[in-house]
Amino acid sequence: MSRIQWAFAVIAAHGAAVPAIAHHSNVIFDLESTITLQATVTRYEWRNPHAYIYVAVDNADGESVEWQIEADPTPIMVRSGWARDTLAPGDEVTLRAHPDRTQPEGHGLLVSLLKSDGELLGMRTGGQSAVAAADGFAGTWDGLRGMRERTFIYGGLTEKGQRAQDEYHESMSDVLNCVPFPTPTVVSAPYLYEVETLDDRILLRTELFHAERTIFMDGRGHPENLERTNQGHSIGRWEGDVLVVDTVGFADSRNGNRNGVPGGAQKHTIERFFLNDNRTRMIVEYWVEDPEFLTEPMTGAMFWDYAPNREFLPFECDPDNARLYSVQ
After folding, report:
1. Which residues have CB under 8 Å from 196's CB, separation 6+?
2. Which residues in the chain show pLDDT less than 70?
3. Concatenated DSSP letters for 27-62?
4. How far does Cα 243 stand from its chain's mean position?
């Protein structure tokens, strides 16, 4: 069994894969149910963190009801065949969507859209296997396909962590103010990643919110009185061909560990990055401890496909767009 097979086998044996995370949880959507809507487009908002499609739909009484259909962030949509001008007011479309559990008529999560000219568009259909083998860690990597196999072992919560999760509402999310996710979410999302290797450091950039990290590779430790930041302070070392990254100093985050479970001053992460045997994938394993909120470490793994032919796309977070979800 290869190292990556072992990594995913161990995680699968102890915990189940979790649904995709966007800027918020998909909990309100009934992912086991799909509805079909014959609709007319009224608005098409090409913004981030989510594109939205507004459509008029006739209900059972023949009355026109406006639906808000949530789609993906624009970089993911572009790689799935969408564009800013894909839709216009007045377009007749057939939508498939997961309905909102709390608002079954009027709000849904897009699955696919059929245009009147026969073009069929879906969500997250732009994944591709590597077109070449990587020479090393440097380059562009794509997390879309790997996220489908991503796994987390969540572990238990402290009394404080459970209380925070019970009290949580999406209106509390840091992302409503366009604040990026920290690890582990920032390395386990369906976006592009850029790795740049320098003599004394490795730079890791993420398309999601354009978050950037510096991993110091010059043998330094963590400073005693470091300034706590969104992405923390990272130091790295090589264990053979595995990059091990140790990070502390995270700023307080309402979604620091997972949706509804904050991250605090005691949060500490270890990440392991290594290439698979044919050097077409970067394997990412993560371990998170935060004794203020977690009774045991949270662990997980996913992979990134080597994607030298893909280009980072803009992800300007629009605060008004980001806050749309909190009012549902």
Report:
1. 138, 202, 203, 205
2. 1-27, 325-328
3. TTB-TT--EEEEEEEEEEE--BS--EEEEEEE-TTS
4. 22
Tens of pLDDT, residue by residue over 130-169, are 989 999 999 999 999 999 999 989 889 999 999 999 998 8
pLDDT in tens, 222-246: 999 999 999 999 999 999 999 999 9
Which pLDDT belongs to residue 281? 98
Pick the CATH number of 3-20+128-327 from 2.40.128.20, 3.30.1330.60, 2.160.20.10, 1.20.1530.10: 2.40.128.20
Beta strands in 102-200 (DSSP E): 107-115, 120-122, 139-142, 151-153, 192-197
Query: How far is C-alpha 194 from the geometric centre of its chain's CA atoms?
Result: 16
- DSSP label of 252: P
Q: Determine contact, residues 69/106, Cβ cutoff 8 Å.
A: no
CA distances from 181 to 166, 172, 187 (A): 20, 14, 9
pLDDT reported for residue 26: 62
Tell me what pLDDT residue 25 has. Answer: 54
Parts of the chain belonging to CATH 2.40.128.20: 3-20+128-327
Strand partners, 113: 95, 121
Cβ-proximal residues to 44 (8 Å cutoff; 6+ apart), any chain: 51, 52, 53, 54, 86, 87, 88, 89
What is the structure's pLDDT at 325? 60
- For the chain, where do the domains classified as CATH 2.40.50 start and end? 35-122
CA distances to 86, 106, 220, 242, 322 from 51, rounded to whole Å, are 12, 16, 42, 37, 10
Which residues make beta-bridge pairs with 305? 142, 281
Q: Which residue intervals of 33-81 are DSSP H helices?
A: 74-78
**Residue 117, CB-side half-sphere exposure with 13 Å CA sphere:** 5
Is 35-122 a CATH 2.60.40 domain? no
The whole-number pLDDT of residue 244 equals: 98
Partners of residue 285 on adjacent β-strands: 272, 301
